[in-house]
Amino acid sequence: MTSPADELETIVQRGLAAYRAGLFYEAHELWEVGWRAEPHPARRAFLQGLILVAAAMHKLTRMRSPSGAVRLLRKAHARLAGVPDGMGGVAVGLLRDDLDRAARAIERRAREGRAELDASVLPRMEAAGERASAPGDECPTA
């Protein structure tokens, strides 16, 4: 029998594979399936945070809405505020910090009238305990 923590990590890893491939809508959908079935409040908040990040990146890369992306990143940050680091195998603290960095970068680019998108603005989702890569190393724009 699989533990709830193992099941959560499996769901998270499936979504991460899609997220890192730039398939943000697909990552959102994968995590939403887990969120709907998750009874534990902290794990639900964690999955909601991931869903919001993926939705923000979809909004930015597909819908070309920087303001919508920033709004969703801020919601994701709030949702992840009480989530312990390492949940689902993710460096949650690093992700929270990176959400702020990404939101500022997106806002700056929008103020400058820069329409081009690159991977440096995408929030990184690192495995707990891994060395953080430079922004954009793993997340291609879609």
What is the fold's blueprint, element by element?
Elements: H1 4-20, H2 24-37, H3 41-61, H4 66-80, H5 92-111
Helix pairs in contact: 1-2, 2-3, 3-4, 4-5
Structural overview:
Helices cover 61% and strands 0% of the residues. The protein has helices at residues 4-20, 24-37, 41-61, 66-80, 92-111. Helix 3 (41-61) packs antiparallel against helix 4.
Structure summary:
By secondary structure, this protein is mainly α. It contains five helices and no strands.
Count the beta strands: 0
**Overall mean pLDDT:** 88
Q: State the order of secondary-structure elements, H for helix, E for strand.
A: HHHHH
Helix content bin? 55-70%
Share of residues in strands: under 5%
Sheet of most strands: none
What is the count of DSSP helices, taking H or I runs of 4+ residues?
A: 5
Structural class: mainly alpha
What characteristic shape results from the CA principal axes? elongated
As a whole number of angstroms, the C-alpha radius of gyration is 14 Å
What gap, in angstroms, lies between the N and C termini? 37 Å
The parts where pLDDT drops under 50 for at least 5 residues are 131-142
Could you list some keywords that capture this structure?
142 residues; mainly alpha; 0% strand
